[in-house]
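Example 3.2
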Amino acid sequence: MVRPFYTDTDLDAFSELKDFAPDAFEGYAAWSAAAFSEGALSRKTKELVALAVAHAIHCPYCIDVHAKGASSAGASREEMVEAIQVASVIRGGATLVHGVQALKSLDGD
């Protein structure tokens, strides 16, 4: 039987990456903490942005983490779905507009 590429327990091993590159891992952890700290944007807004981006980049681990993060920061399911819809429209629009490049490539220089 082939192991699924993504499993619920994989994220538990994330911290093991620190063993192989501790400075880089700690730098990432500090960067993440700073990016998600309260500032001009609330934690809830930041988690909604992260959830939307996670969907746009197709990161299942990020989706799990930031769905829970958005919920714990007070985001409703409706807010989460709206954020996901915005990301989906942007992702879809970007794919669609690249059709211009496809058609231009047929015209030559």
